[in-house]
Write a structure and sequence with these properties.
The chain has 305 residues and is mainly β. It is built from no helices and 22 strands. The chain folds into two domains: 19-154, Beta Barrel (AOC barrel-like); 162-304, Aligned Prism (Vitelline Membrane Outer Layer Protein I, subunit A). It has strands at 19-31, 39-43, 54-62, 71-81, 85-93, 102-108, 113-122, 129-140, 143-154, 162-168, 173-175, 180-190, 194-203, 208-210, 214-215, 220-225, 232-242, 245-255, 259-264, 273-278, 285-292, 297-304.
Amino acid sequence: MATHPNFHASAFDGSVQNTEFKFSSLYWHHIYSGPSPNQSVLIGAEATTGLGQSAVNDWTIYGGVGSDAELVARAQGLHLYAGSWHNTFTLRFEIERLKKSTLQVMGASVEDEGEWSIVGGTGDLAMARGVVAKRLHEKTDGGDIVELTIHGFCRMQLPILNKRGPWGGKQGSAVGLEKPSKIASITIHYQEIINSFEYIYVDQYGNIGNTNIWGTKSPNHAEIVLGPDEIVTGMSGTVIKHNNLDVIQTLMFTTSKKTYGPYGNTTNIQGGTTFSTVVPNGQAIVGFFGHTDMKCLNGIGVYMA
């Protein structure tokens, strides 16, 4: 049988890599009346059966039920009555990690509990399939708030983290076992040495994480808050003996925008052993690991992706 010259198909003998993804405790605001509805009727219903009524929706989905809850996604599409309500919509994400990704969802509405099918996706969620479980959370004036749980599989490729370092000592506890994908901020306490280090990061699933303090606080401190499109491209510093232990004496960071530091004992920087690392083009320092005896930062290394 002849095929079109622009069509090509070939056998694939390899395995298909799947990534599992989940969202829990999302809250869909289904507001159909009142001053601020998020759906509108396009076609009225047949008088006897109700068949044919169709509406367009721009439903909002939040990460919590409080007034300060984050807008996670919008469900934009259609629903129509064909003996029961049928939904078909695009779930467009508003959170940074999935800003350019969508899920294609369809299925029948149920009053209290039920599921919709995930029949596709784009961006990081390309070729997604799975289910969206829904459960009535509460009724409000003019609508419902419905709790959603999303569970699916897609072709998302999670970044492979490469390590450089650590520099300094290995006394105390190992720290930095997270799976970061972007640094949001860095906080350093210092005096004669780097007394403590912590950073806030976005993990590979789009969640915000905090490492807590590696060490102990001291009078001097600095906080580096990175811009939305700012990445860390290099780190340097010095290691010195302190109470017969190798510890981090100074730290300095280079980003795509500027240089921060050095922080620490910069008056005696010549007395330390220097170290530095710069990431290759197209990569970034996305996180840190190291050692701390809870008194200071003994050693530090970087994750690159």
